[in-house]
Amino acid sequence: MNTSITRTTSRAALATRKPMAAADVTKAFFARRAPSTIIAYQFDLKLLEAWLGIDAPEAGINALAEYLFASNPGTLNALLMEWVDEQTKAGLAPYTINRRLTAVRSLVKLGRTLGVITWALDVQGIRGAQGIRDMRGPVASDIKKLFAAAQRMGAMQLSIMHLLYTRGLRSIEVRELRLEHLKLERDEVLIRGKGKTGLSPITISRSTTHALQIHLAKRGNAPGFVFTGWSDPESRVSHRWLWTTVKRIGKAAGVAVRPHGLRHSAITAVLDATDGNVREVQKFSRHKNPAVLLNHYDDARQDIGGKLTRLLADEPE
To answer: pLDDT-derived band of residue 58, with 50, 70 and 90 as boundaries?
Structure first.
């Protein structure tokens, strides 16, 4: 059996190939990325482009890439440090500033990888940018109130509650759900997980399926997004829309809640239900790194630090 691979491009042709340009880097930069990541990176890079005073709307991100790659590394580091400082003084969250800087650093890094430049950025993001991380979310009694309120409000709200809590989906995963992604006959939906480019099937509860079926009966069977704020089913709802919808459910229930807080609650609940079985819970949460479950969710669930401080103070739990 011949297993040799036919070489379609000669080594000589590769050796004489023209060097890559900035446009080639930007094309590669956005290739094979999830649509939500592309939108976020384009937004962040456009902000820097405007801050630098680059006025070339017809060139897209290419004009910014050309500017970055043609810059003196030291000067560019100084400019980005100034950009970070201005955003900090403006009161932007450290996480937001670091995310924007990451988009720029990733573009420059790819330029180096592809041989367009020979240097890398040294400017660092803001340390300690995570801030307060409460991974617990609403407690069980509040979750019951939220579901009761959502049921009173309608099938759409109840479906959203089920997807965010019962299956622990992320906001973008709910908003990206399309009609063709629903396989309700076998209690499944197809989602594009965090950092993924393809769709994967995940099992949902029968109650989630039932809520979605009622919602779809009102929505209609036109192809498009499952949740849409407009008459056009091809208009995907925004994060703000989902946030507002969940906030309204919370207001009706008398519970402070946000979309991602429901995912926190779900993960904490399944950790309790499995007696802290991180391997099983990782299948539910779809975290790539199980250390996230151990370092954040499980610590918050057990409050180990609190138990030990009460032990040292000789106080009852």
So the answer is: confident
Backbone angles phi, psi at 183, to 5 degrees: -120, 65
- CA quadruple 295, 297, 301, 305: dihedral sign: positive
132: pLDDT confidence band, cut at 50, 70 and 90? Answer: very low
Nearest residue to 233 (alpha-carbon basis) of 164, 158, 178, 157: 178
Amino acid at 67: Y
Residue 237 is inside which H or E element, if any? none
Three-state secondary-structure class, residue 136: coil
Distances in whole angstroms, Cα of residue 196 to Cα of each of 105, 124, 199, 288, 304 = 21, 26, 8, 11, 34
Cα gap 97→80, rounded to integer Å: 11
Residues designated catalytic:
170, 194, 260, 263, 287, 297
What confidence tens digit (pLDDT) does each residue in 2-42 have?
555 455 555 555 455 667 889 999 999 998 787 778 888 99
DSSP string, 256-277: ---HHHHHHHHHHHHHHHTTS-
The pTM is what?
A: 0.64
Ordered alpha helix ranges (H), 16-72: 22-30, 35-52, 62-70
